[in-house]
Description:
By secondary structure, the chain is an alpha+beta fold. 28% of the residues lie in helices and 27% in strands. Among the domains are: 5-108 and 116-137 and 290-323, 4-Layer Sandwich (Double-stranded beta-helix), CATH 3.60.130.10; 172-227, no CATH class.
Amino acid sequence: MSLEFQVKRQSATRECAGEAFPEVVNNKTKFATLDETLAWIATRREQFCRQVEHCGALLFRGFPLTTAQHFDSFVGAFGLPGFAYEDSLSNAVRVNKTPRVFTANEAPPTAHILFHHEMAQTPLFPSKLFFFCENPPDTGGATPLCRSDDLWEELLKVCSEFAQTCQQKGLRYSHVMPNENDFASGMGRSWRSTLKAQTPEQAEARLAALKYSYEWIGNDALRATTPVLRAVWDLPSGRKSFFNQLIAFYSAGKPNADACKSVTFGDGSEIPHGPVMIASELADRLAFDLDWQRGDVVLIDNFICMHGRRPYTGVRKVLASLVAYTGLESKA
């Protein structure tokens, strides 16, 4: 059976700079086999990669994908360099389903995960990421997507001084890592796992190589602080992207001492709470909420598009896979 596909503007998408966001690839036949799908993806993978680098997010809908292994094969058909989660410096706990596929988040269903660029709070981050819906929730659970280049332009209009300070100074992030993985916490990945270290000496050596500062605190926990990382990314299009995790780190609640310690400007100065709240509100206003259907895959350009997660009820199974970026960030 031949395959029919189309890329089209969906009424459910929003418009950014006159373009559909996200762009949608529909499987019109609805009856294709997995092997046919993989062969088709392999012949068009360069086209899709160019497309997502332009539009920010590309949704594949109606394809015959039902399991983590199907998703693994779908990602593999793109021929992109993988980035295993265990090689990341992320502080979140994840569960691998295959070597390149893992759970998207272990936070409880009631948690609202705020906008962020994947792993932008570390010197190692992916260039692209795939999400796959194995099982949609009963209610809620959308993945909101926001074009950070549009967010940057809006920030310049309403918080110009703050936006320019972010660009000029960059950001530093701090996080406390426990001695052992805390599976009850979505952000409880241990320093042993994160740094691939068995001893404090090995952890310190890895942090020194990455230009982190650090301190040991009670119960063998480790507080690590990044070098200065950029907060704004220059895109090939000539536009700029608000590329960071500032909203997710700082705007989860009211300003407090912990929030001020978790992220600062690159010179160590405190970040004002008000403009971060404005950035968060702008991101929500610009966002498209992706309401998952079973078998959906979304390919996201991590430099253009930030994402989050809405609270939900029921059993939500969304998996992820990362595409490597070869650069190493060490300064703003």
